[in-house]
Amino acid sequence: MNGGALAGIRVVDLSRVLAGPYCAQLLGDHGAQVTKLEPVTGDLTRSWGPSRGDGVSAYYAGLNRNKEHLTADLASPEGRDLALRLLRDADVLVENFKPGTMERWGLGTEELLERFPRLVYCRISAFDGAGPMAGLPGYDAVIQAYTGIMDLNGEPDGPPLRVPMPVADLTTGLLAFAGVLLALHERARSGRGQCVDLSLEDGAMSLLHPAAANYFMTGEPPRRLGSAHPNIAPCDTFHSPAGELYVAAGSDRQFAVLVGFLGAPELARDPRFGTNADRLAHRHELNAALARLVAGLDPGVDLARALVTEGVPATLIRPLADVLDAPDAAERGMVTGLDGLRLLGVPIRLSRTPGSVRTPPRPLGADQAAVGAAST
């Protein structure tokens, strides 16, 4: 089996919880040798939610495969020495400590880049260093609230809601992964490493499309729309005899096909609904008409397949268990198993050097003896 696109790249993962470990896991999925150096008390996520009993919780398992697992107290001389020994041969460092912490330990960006000039130093913080919250800690839910994501999420007459997935952390982890690859690519030309600096705040703000674009153009603050779309109609959920149906007819042609399928082709000729702008202006009347038509559909019809076959983006809303247990999820490699754990797979598919899930998330310090001895 090939070693992956990043075979030969060595990563020291000092990060905890989510964005940093996710970035390091993505590097490991594609062949990098990742050594995770945890506090002696363990990554906080080892205690989050269901656990299999050896310190590997479900939350930890989803972010820490394809890594070697060591512990160190970086505030101690011994822990600092271990980190420096690992960094001697490392290409990438990932850390997400509170700003100033690494400097206090003598492991700050300037010190390490001077000592290891080829190192790509990936630094992730909660808030951007130039903002009023600079240097303060923050979790994903706090970032969602602070950056307006929660304000946009929810029903029009309901309160703001957190997006249930940690989108700020995951997005920042993906951006960190991309930033590390950019820095490694540039290093191949210059021979020099650099700092890759990210914050959850900026990562979350990068998700504010099209709300930000709409606000910049109109000056009108966005409103919560539930499952509807601010720029497209119809784009919403409708109750059908077979379940909740989500329809996103983004073009005039798709709308004409949709209402033809529903047995009401005259709606495409209705001046209230002739263009997307018309449909947005009369969104409530349109949704009421579509709701009546969808509610009367034959419950035996595979609505999602029938509509998509006709060119209308639509699907029944699937429960998560159905998504994860579907045979095609395993066939595509998006659900996989290792060491008795079910894990999500590798979404980036390379034809010659595909990523892979090779080693499971392990108990705290499981590789201490082997890796610690090798680094001396």
From TrEMBL:
Superkingdom per UniProt: Bacteria
Keywords: Transferase
Pfam families registered for this protein in UniProt: CoA_transf_3 (PF02515)
GO molecular function: CoA-transferase activity
UniProt-recorded name of the protein: Carnitine dehydratase
InterPro entries: CoA-transferase_III_domain, CoA-Trfase_fam_III, CoA-Trfase_III_dom3_sf, CoA-Trfase_III_dom_1_sf
Region listing for Disordered, in residue ranges: 352-376
